[in-house]
Amino acid sequence: MLLDSLQHKGLRQRLLRTLHGKGITDERVLTAMGNVPRHFFLESGLDKIAYDDKALPIGVEQTISQPYTVGWQTQLLSVASGEKVLEIGTGSGYQAAVLCELGAEVYSIERQGVLHDKAKNLLAQMGYRPTLVYGDGFEGLPQHAPFAKIIVTCGAGHVPQPLLSQLAVSGRMVIPAKSGGALYMFVFDRISETQIRQTKLKECSFVPMLQGVS
Ligand code: SAH
User: Fold this and answer.
1) Which entry of 44, 65, 78, 214 is annotated as an active-site residue?
2) Would the pLDDT of 49 be above 90?
3) Quick one: which atom of ligand 1 is closest to the CA of 212?
4) In CA terms, which of 54, 94, 131, 184 is 20 to 30 Å from 207?
5) Is the Cβ–Cβ distance between 59 and 90 less than 8 Å?
């Protein structure tokens, strides 16, 4: 049963103010996050802390990203309504729901079967219609390419070439990737068929991007 109580709504509004204070100022992103009850994506035992600005466990050693990180990556992605967006690492499905709220045509890949199944049921129950794929995100989804935006929500040891090649001209990919032993947020902008501009941002922390399926 999915119940969004007044208390949950109040905690969510408080979280949005916290995020705004930390630099998530894009009103469309804040509105989208305000429309998605994060506690639906967590076990009921975590209900009380669902609106803390923290990453939390979702099973099989994975986590739902910290709300600040979701806000930051989503803001960097600057999604326009109707754009085709590919997410790597469906996890709980929370980030996918936020992208749906922004009006994106969402594709999301998850390598953990149990998480894929759970997210699929929950998002359908909530009325979202993303295309969820059980598979290895390193390959992307060539059959649905090109994508206007790509967001990777696990820490990559290297930047997967198939993902860059599935990025549309004028498209953008936001990906946490290893650089000199630490994980940094990177933005890749495809300027033309042959040119890509890379921007390295702050250090960050994510569960690892792993090969194959489980
Ligand atoms: N976006 C998620 C965050 C989940 S954590 C959310 O909103 O909850 C990152 C997820 O990436 C984990 O579920 C992990 O299993 C998944 N993952 C790791 N490597 C992957 C890969 N190669 N392909 C697809 N998913 C991957």
Assistant:
1) 65
2) yes
3) 22
4) 131
5) no
